[in-house]
Amino acid sequence: MSRLEVIRKTLWIVVSIVFVGAFLASCGSQIRKDGAPSKSVATGNQLPVDATPRKEPKSRYGNPPVYEVFGVRYKVMNSSYGYQERGVASWYGKKFHGRATSSQETYDMYAMTAAHKTLPLPTYARVRNLRNNKSIVVRINDRGPFVDNRIIDLSYSAAAKLDMIGAGTSLVEVTALSFDQPPATQPVRAKTDAKPITELAVDEPRVFVQVGAFGDLDNAKRRFALLRDSGIGKATVHKDTSRAPALYRIRVGPVENVDDYDRIVAKLNQIGITESHLVTN
Questions:
Q1: pTM
Q2: What DSSP assignment string belongs to the chain?
Q3: Which tens digits make up the pLDDT trace of 146-175?
Q4: Domains of the chain (ranges plus CATH)?
């Protein structure tokens, strides 16, 4: 074996050990019991200020092109530009306070940070709670959460500011605050509603699972019939006249909470519908 091959092999082993160790710290909240600190920061002036977005170089750690966890392969995004997604947020706390994150920074449950499976580390993002419209800015410096239907894992303080500590999870919208330049070819954006997203004026916005958007009414009716015949209730056909020609969006809901969302997604998967996303009215 040549000297170059030995060096490459050694570097790969070191990187693998570092990443696996960081992964165990970052996703451990899904494996071992976690909890809030004994000293709460969820009230009054104890809440930290949001993270301040600034341009930073990519971390030397936690950004492999591809990695695998629990048999699932994840491809790390080259850029955060244009990223926006809706789904379920969870949080992790004292069990991992002081441990290394995937970027090899120390996890601080009192800081405004988060973990994400594929965004480059670090990335700043705005997280909006779709249940109460509260919004925060976090710095993503960790990997996770590796649980179905979960798109971001928030620090304890970030979750407290979104008022989701008690529930443990919440339906959220995540928007990258990117300093990256637009790529030469526009990337495929994450799954979101096609219409521009505006701030909601109500305390309890209604949330739906969209399971298709069709330009042909007959195709929309067939998708609706499949949902109805499969026992998936609360399905409606929404005609979007803001488009020309109009689009017929098939939606299930309103979604009451995260448990309701998980049940709906599980039923959709059973009938072969794996592409869905959250929208609000």
A1: 0.77
A2: --HHHHHHHHHHHHHHHHHHHHHHHHHGGGTS-----SS---SGGGSPPPP-----PPPSSS--SEEEETTEEEEPPS--TT-EEEEEEEEE-GGGTTSB-TTSPBP-TTSSEEE-SSSPSSEEEEEEETTT--EEEEEEEE----STTEEEEEEHHHHHHTT-TTTS-EEEEEEE---SPPPSSPPPPPS--SSPP----SSS--EEEEEEEESSHHHHHHHHHHHHHTT--SEEEEEETTSSS-EEEEEE----SHHHHHHHHHHHHHTT----EEEE-
A3: 988 899 999 999 999 999 999 999 999 999
A4: 8-176 (2.40.40.10), 207-280 (3.30.70.1070)
